[in-house]
Design goal:
Length: 360
C-alpha cells in the first residue's frame, strides 16, 4: 500500500481494514500519537494489557521482536507490537563496534515475514526525520537512512506522514473540536487561537479544553481568547534569557515589560522564562559532556530544533553554576507568586534583578 494521509488511515480503520506493518512519522507529534492509538484500538480493542507489547526502538532486541511476532493473540484478533523511535541513522544509544547498516538489515530481515495475526507499528515521536518535497507525487520523501524502513512499510503495509498543518487547516480543526465539545467558535477566532499558540497542536488542545470549560454552550469570542489564553512569545523569552546571560539590564527589563503586557497570565510568563533557563542548563551540561544539538533534541524530545540552538548559543555565556542559581531564583519566585503575597510585576522584576546580579 502506498503512502497515505492521516484522514485516509482513519477511513481505513473505520472499515476494519488493517495492515500488518505501519510506519508513522512527522512533525505533528500529537497526530502521530493519536493515529498510533487508533491503530492499537482497531487491532486489540480494550485488551492492550494482553495483546499489546511496547518496545523501545533505541535498544531494540531483534530476537525478542521475532519471538513477539510469532505469539498468538490473547483475547483479541491481533497481536500488536509498538516500536517507538527506532532511528536507522543511530539504531543504538551506544554504537561502539556496531554499524547502522548491519543493524537495519537485521531488522528488515526480522520483519520480512510478519504472521497474519501480528500488527507492527513503528512510530517516531522523539526525533525529527528530514524530508524533501517530491513534486511528481506531491508527497514528502525521507532524506536519511530511515527511508529504507519507511519504503518497506509503504510496500508491504502502510506509511503515514503527519506534517504540521496550515493555519487554515488548524482553524477548521479547532472549530470542529470546539463544536464537538458543545461550544462555538468562528474560523477567524480559531485562526487567532492557532496564531496565539504558535500553531503548536498540544498547546492548542490544552487551550481548547480550557476555553470550552469556560464558555460552556456559548460562543468563544475574541475577548474570551484575550482574557484566558496566554499568547506564546518564544522570541521574547529568548531575548530575556540572552540579556540576563550578558548582564544587559536594559534589554532584560525591556523584554520583561513586553511579556508583562499579558496581565492575566503572569504565572505562564514565569513558567516560560523558567523553561528558557532549563533549556540553557541542559545545553550547558550537554556541551560539557561533549554532546551536540541533535543529541539534546533527541534526549529531551524537543519538537523545534531552533529552541535547542538558541539554548546552546545563550548558555555559552553562562557557567553551569550561574544557571543553577538562576533556576533556584525562578523556583523561589514561583513559590512567592503562588502564595498570593505581593504585586506580580514587582515580584518578577525582583527575580530578573537577582538573576542579573549572579556571577559566572
Amino acid at each position: 500500500m502506498p503512502q497515505i494521509d492521516p484522514k485516509a488511515l482513519k477511513a481505513q480503520l473505520s472499515k476494519g481494514e488493517l495492515s500488518n506493518i505501519y510506519y508513522i512519522f512527522g512533525r505533528n507529534i500529537p497526530e502521530v500519537e493519536r493515529l498510533t492509538k487508533h491503530i492499537i484500538k482497531a487491532a486489540v480493542g480494550d485488551n492492550e494489557d494482553y495483546a499489546l507489547n511496547k518496545l523501545n526502538g533505541k535498544n531494540l532486541d531483534f530476537s525478542e521482536l521475532y519471538d513477539m511476532m510469532q505469539m498468538m493473540p490473547m483475547m483479541s484478533e491481533y497481536n500488536c507490537i509498538l516500536i517507538n523511535d527506532y532511528n536507522c541513522e543511530k539504531p543504538r544509544e551506544v554504537m561502539t563496534g556496531l554499524k547502522a547498516e548491519n543493524l537495519n538489515k537485521e531488522l528488515l530481515d526480522t520483519i520480512k515475514e510478519i504472521p497474519s495475526q501480528t500488527v507492527i507499528i513503528f512510530n517516531i515521536t522523539g526525533f525529527e526525520i528530514p524530508v524533501k518535497s517530491d513534486y511528481k507525487s506531491g508527497k514528502n520523501i525521507i532524506k536519511d537512512k530511515n527511508k529504507k524502513l519507511a519504503d518497506y512499510a509503504a510496500k508491504v503495509g502502510t506509511l503515514i506522514e503527519c506534517p504540521i498543518k496550515s493555519e487554515n487547516e488548524l482553524a477548521k480543526d479547532i472549530a470542529s473540536s470546539v463544536s464537538a465539545r458543545g461550544s462555538l467558535i468562528s474560523i477567524d477566532t480559531a485562526s487567532e487561537l492557532a496564531e496565539m499558540c504558535q500553531y503548536d497542536a498540544l498547546t492548542i488542545r490544552n487551550e481548547i479544553e480550557k476555553l470550552c470549560a469556560y464558555a460552556g454552550k456559548n460562543e468563544i469570542k475574541a475577548d474570551i481568547l484575550h482574557q484566558l489564553v496566554h499568547r506564546q512569545s518564544d522570541m521574547t523569552f529568548f531575548k530575556l534569557a540572552d540579556a540576563v546571560a550578558v548582564f544587559n539590564k536594559r534589554s532584560a527589563f525591556e523584554a520583561l515589560d513586553e511579556l508583562m503586557q499579558d496581565k492575566e497570565n503572569r504565572g505562564a510568563v514565569l513558567a516560560n522564562i523558567t523553561a528558557s533557563f532549563i533549556d540553557m542548563y541542559r545545553a550547558a551540561c550537554a556541551r560539557k559532556s561533549g554532546r551536540q544539538v541533535n543529541d539534546v533534541k533527541e534526549d529531551f524530545l524537543y519538537v523545534w530544533e531552533f529552541k535547542v540552538k538558541n539554548a546552546f548559543r545563550d548558555s555559552s555565556r553562562m557557567s553551569i553554576n550561574r544557571l543553577r542559581e538562576c533556576i533556584k531564583i525562578l523556583r523561589d519566585t514561583n513559590i512567592t507568586l503562588n502564595s498570593g503575597v505581593g504585586d506580580e510585576k514587582i515580584i518578577l522584576e525582583q527575580a530578573v534583578t537577582k538573576m542579573l546580579m549572579t556571577k559566572n
